[in-house]
Amino acid sequence: MNQETRLVATLPSTPRGARAARALTVNQLTQQGLPFEDAAQVVAELAANAVTHGRVPGRNFRLALRITDGPTLRIEVSDTRREFTPPAVPASPGAESGRGLVLVAAFATRWGIDHGPAPLKTVWAEMDLGSPISPDRGFHVPVGRLPVAHDA
Questions:
Q1: In what order do the strands lie in the sheet with 4-11?
Q2: CA torsion angle for 62, 131, 36, 47 (degrees, to 10)?
Q3: 8 A C-beta contact, residue 63 and residue 8
Q4: CA dist list (Å): 37 to 1, 77, 87, 147
Q5: Whether this model's pTM surpasses 0.85
Q6: Are 139 and 35 a contacting pair, CB within 8 Å?
Q7: Which of 88, 102, 118, 136 is the most buried if burial means most Cβ atoms within 10 Å?
Protein backbone atom coordinates (compact mmCIF):
# COMPACT_ATOMS: atom_id res chain seq x y z
CA MET A 1 0.00 0.00 0.00
CA ASN A 2 2.81 2.43 0.96
CA GLN A 3 0.59 5.39 1.82
CA GLU A 4 1.23 8.08 4.38
CA THR A 5 -1.17 10.50 6.03
CA ARG A 6 0.13 13.65 7.71
CA LEU A 7 -1.31 16.33 9.92
CA VAL A 8 0.71 19.30 11.15
CA ALA A 9 -0.85 21.98 13.33
CA THR A 10 0.57 24.97 15.16
CA LEU A 11 -1.40 25.58 18.33
CA PRO A 12 -1.34 28.16 21.12
CA SER A 13 0.64 27.21 24.23
CA THR A 14 -2.50 27.23 26.38
CA PRO A 15 -4.74 24.57 27.88
CA ARG A 16 -7.15 25.25 25.00
CA GLY A 17 -4.33 24.51 22.53
CA ALA A 18 -3.56 21.24 24.30
CA ARG A 19 -7.23 20.21 24.12
CA ALA A 20 -7.31 21.14 20.43
CA ALA A 21 -4.29 18.88 19.81
CA ARG A 22 -6.17 15.96 21.36
CA ALA A 23 -9.34 16.74 19.37
CA LEU A 24 -7.39 16.98 16.10
CA THR A 25 -5.82 13.59 16.80
CA VAL A 26 -9.18 11.97 17.51
CA ASN A 27 -10.63 13.50 14.36
CA GLN A 28 -7.71 12.42 12.16
CA LEU A 29 -7.69 8.83 13.41
CA THR A 30 -11.49 8.54 13.31
CA GLN A 31 -11.48 9.67 9.67
CA GLN A 32 -8.94 6.93 8.92
CA GLY A 33 -10.99 4.29 10.77
CA LEU A 34 -8.14 3.76 13.25
CA PRO A 35 -8.23 3.34 17.04
CA PHE A 36 -7.80 6.72 18.72
CA GLU A 37 -8.13 6.43 22.50
CA ASP A 38 -4.53 5.51 23.32
CA ALA A 39 -3.14 7.98 20.79
CA ALA A 40 -5.39 10.72 22.17
CA GLN A 41 -4.02 10.03 25.66
CA VAL A 42 -0.41 10.23 24.41
CA VAL A 43 -1.12 13.51 22.59
CA ALA A 44 -2.88 14.89 25.67
CA GLU A 45 0.14 14.12 27.86
CA LEU A 46 2.72 15.49 25.40
CA ALA A 47 0.68 18.61 24.64
CA ALA A 48 0.09 19.24 28.35
CA ASN A 49 3.85 19.00 28.93
CA ALA A 50 4.52 21.43 26.07
CA VAL A 51 1.99 23.89 27.48
CA THR A 52 3.06 23.49 31.11
CA HIS A 53 6.83 23.05 30.91
CA GLY A 54 7.77 24.10 27.37
CA ARG A 55 5.79 27.30 27.17
CA VAL A 56 7.54 30.47 26.15
CA PRO A 57 5.26 33.55 26.16
CA GLY A 58 4.25 34.50 22.64
CA ARG A 59 5.31 31.17 21.12
CA ASN A 60 3.15 28.25 20.05
CA PHE A 61 3.72 24.51 20.03
CA ARG A 62 3.46 22.18 17.06
CA LEU A 63 1.65 18.86 16.76
CA ALA A 64 2.64 16.55 13.92
CA LEU A 65 0.98 13.21 13.21
CA ARG A 66 2.20 10.77 10.58
CA ILE A 67 0.34 7.55 9.82
CA THR A 68 2.17 4.99 7.70
CA ASP A 69 1.48 1.43 6.61
CA GLY A 70 1.17 -0.99 9.47
CA PRO A 71 -0.54 1.21 10.51
CA THR A 72 2.02 3.04 12.59
CA LEU A 73 1.36 6.45 14.11
CA ARG A 74 4.21 8.84 14.86
CA ILE A 75 3.25 11.69 17.18
CA GLU A 76 5.55 14.69 17.55
CA VAL A 77 4.98 17.61 19.89
CA SER A 78 7.51 20.42 19.56
CA ASP A 79 7.99 23.47 21.75
CA THR A 80 10.58 26.22 21.94
CA ARG A 81 11.94 25.60 25.40
CA ARG A 82 14.83 23.35 24.55
CA GLU A 83 16.47 23.70 27.96
CA PHE A 84 13.58 21.89 29.69
CA THR A 85 13.90 18.17 29.09
CA PRO A 86 11.39 15.84 30.75
CA PRO A 87 12.90 13.91 33.67
CA ALA A 88 14.16 10.42 32.89
CA VAL A 89 12.78 8.96 36.13
CA PRO A 90 9.12 8.72 37.17
CA ALA A 91 7.74 10.85 39.98
CA SER A 92 7.81 9.62 43.54
CA PRO A 93 4.67 7.80 44.74
CA GLY A 94 3.43 10.81 46.72
CA ALA A 95 3.94 13.37 43.96
CA GLU A 96 0.89 15.09 42.49
CA SER A 97 2.34 15.22 38.97
CA GLY A 98 5.17 13.80 36.90
CA ARG A 99 3.59 10.61 35.59
CA GLY A 100 2.72 11.74 32.05
CA LEU A 101 5.73 10.18 30.38
CA VAL A 102 5.09 6.93 32.25
CA LEU A 103 1.71 6.84 30.47
CA VAL A 104 3.36 7.71 27.15
CA ALA A 105 5.82 4.85 27.63
CA ALA A 106 2.98 2.47 28.48
CA PHE A 107 0.99 3.28 25.33
CA ALA A 108 3.83 3.84 22.84
CA THR A 109 5.97 1.23 21.15
CA ARG A 110 8.89 3.66 21.47
CA TRP A 111 9.36 7.31 22.35
CA GLY A 112 12.14 9.84 22.70
CA ILE A 113 13.30 13.44 22.62
CA ASP A 114 15.01 15.26 19.76
CA HIS A 115 16.72 18.64 20.13
CA GLY A 116 17.09 21.14 17.35
CA PRO A 117 17.28 23.17 15.45
CA ALA A 118 17.55 25.66 18.30
CA PRO A 119 15.40 26.51 20.19
CA LEU A 120 13.20 23.48 19.37
CA LYS A 121 12.66 20.38 21.43
CA THR A 122 10.46 17.59 20.07
CA VAL A 123 9.07 14.79 22.19
CA TRP A 124 7.87 11.97 19.95
CA ALA A 125 6.12 8.65 20.33
CA GLU A 126 5.38 5.86 17.89
CA MET A 127 2.41 3.54 18.22
CA ASP A 128 1.47 0.39 16.36
CA LEU A 129 -2.22 0.94 15.66
CA GLY A 130 -2.61 -2.48 14.06
CA SER A 131 -2.65 -4.35 17.35
CA PRO A 132 -4.68 -2.49 19.98
CA ILE A 133 -4.89 -3.88 23.51
CA SER A 134 -8.49 -4.95 22.95
CA PRO A 135 -10.18 -5.52 19.57
CA ASP A 136 -12.76 -2.77 20.15
CA ARG A 137 -10.64 -0.34 22.17
CA GLY A 138 -10.66 3.10 20.64
CA PHE A 139 -12.97 2.42 17.72
CA HIS A 140 -16.06 4.03 19.22
CA VAL A 141 -16.92 7.36 17.62
CA PRO A 142 -16.35 10.07 20.24
CA VAL A 143 -19.78 11.67 19.98
CA GLY A 144 -20.28 14.03 22.88
CA ARG A 145 -16.70 13.52 24.06
CA LEU A 146 -15.05 16.43 22.33
CA PRO A 147 -13.25 18.84 24.66
CA VAL A 148 -15.27 21.66 26.14
CA ALA A 149 -13.53 25.03 26.39
CA HIS A 150 -13.12 26.22 29.97
CA ASP A 151 -10.61 29.00 29.38
CA ALA A 152 -11.64 32.42 30.59
A1: 4-11, 61-68, 72-79, 121-128, 110-115
A2: -30
A3: yes
A4: 25, 17, 25, 14
A5: no
A6: yes
A7: 102
